[in-house]
Write a structure and sequence with these properties.
Number of strands: 13
Radius of gyration: 18 Å
CATH superfamily: Spore Coat Polysaccharide Biosynthesis Protein SpsA, Chain A
Largest sheet: 5 strands, mixed, barrel
Number of domains: 1
CATH class: Alpha Beta
Strand order of the largest sheet: 8-11-9-10-12
Number of helices: 10
Oligomer: single chain
Helix content: 25-40%
Structural class: alpha/beta
Bound molecules: uridine 5'-triphosphate
CATH topology: Spore Coat Polysaccharide Biosynthesis Protein SpsA, Chain A
Distance between the termini: 23 Å
Shape: globular
């Protein structure tokens, strides 16, 4: 953890089935898929730490125990490799375990991302919090994406979503926003639509898996009806905040890999490997 942040808790909704990676995800959480030697969720935790957070709240589901074990000490393994050249390979995860607190709750039924976030409320309590979807892996040479968003939260004191320009033909995979550009790359959101068909999309500005949410989102989610796909959508709840002018969207600096898809996962693996050869 580098700096003092007004946001202390980062929530990781990680209860989804990860069906696009079956059979790999039959008994292993998608969030534990490795890119090089690190599981996706560890990249997310490191990004949250870089943004000044030290409380990690994880919404899990059935078959996700490997996540809890990953963020815990493994005495037997550590004893085995102590004093060998392999010991350093556990240094990063040991640092995370030392610096952060982890808490878990289970989403019993997969009713959508909005429902997963509402399920996390007892872990977050009533304060602004960050959300990372670990299957969106974000890398940046400078400041991390969440860190960039915390700065905007400090300035605007409202919910913040990260956006990127996507291929207009792919709007039906994302929540899409429209709004007024108030600073270069920063929008005050007026409209949000979940997974619109390309013909119905207001723009090609898509929300990716990083949010800072003010706690009134829980009150809104409690009464949000199932939307697209019969799921409780965070986009629909955010729309209620946007109507009051309380959502800012930011085109972040950095690169996002959609590691929830095979293509994005392979791209991340290849590019991070090439990068590692240069270091
Ligand atoms: P996705 O729809 O991308 O994940 O949800 P998925 O359902 O696990 O993947 P596929 O489509 O079957 O391959 C985005 C994020 O929201 C979480 C997921 O874990 C993922 O991080 N999520 C989604 C929940 O925690 N609960 C839900 O009910 C739905």
């Amino acid at each position: 953890m580098k700096k003092k942040s007004p946001i202390h808790v980062c929530l990781f909704p990680a209860a989804g089935y990860g069906t696009r990676f079956l059979p790999a995800t039959k008994s292993m959480p998608k969030e534990m898929l490795p890119v090089l030697t690190k599981p996706l969720i560890q990249y997310g935790v490191e990004e949250a730490m870089e943004a000044g957070m030290n409380t990690m709240a994880i919404v899990t589901g059935r078959g996700k125990r490997a996540i809890e074990d990953h963020f815990d000490i493994s005495y037997e393994l550590e004893h085995q490799i102590k004093g060998t050249s392999k010991e350093k390979m556990l240094a990063d995860i040991r640092h995370i375990i030392d610096k952060c607190t982890f808490s878990y709750t289970r989403q019993k039924e997969m009713k959508g991302l909005g429902h997963a976030i509402l399920t996390g409320k007892p872990l977050v309590s009533y304060q602004p919090f960050a959300v990372i979807l670990a299957d969106d892996l974000c890398v940046n040479e400078g400041e991390g994406v969440l860190s960039q968003m915390v700065k905007l939260y400090e300035k605007y004191q409202c919910s913040i979503v990260a956006i990127e320009e996507i291929d207009p033909q792919q709007t039906d995979r994302y929540g899409v926003i429209a709004g007024v550009e108030i600073e270069p790359g920063i929008y005050r959101v007026s409209t949000m639509v979940e997974k619109p068909a390309p013909a119905d999309a207001p723009t090609n500005l898509a929300i990716i898996g990083r949010y800072i949410l003010t706690p009134d989102i829980f009150d809104i989610l409690r009464t949000t009806q199932p939307g697209k796909g019969g799921e409780i959508q965070i986009t629909d709840a955010l729309m209620a905040q946007a109507l009051a002018g309380n959502v800012i969207a930011c085109k972040f600096q950095g690169k996002r890999y959609d590691c929830g898809s095979i293509d994005g996962y392979v791209e991340a693996t290849v590019e991070l490997y090439q990068q590692s050869l240069k270091n």
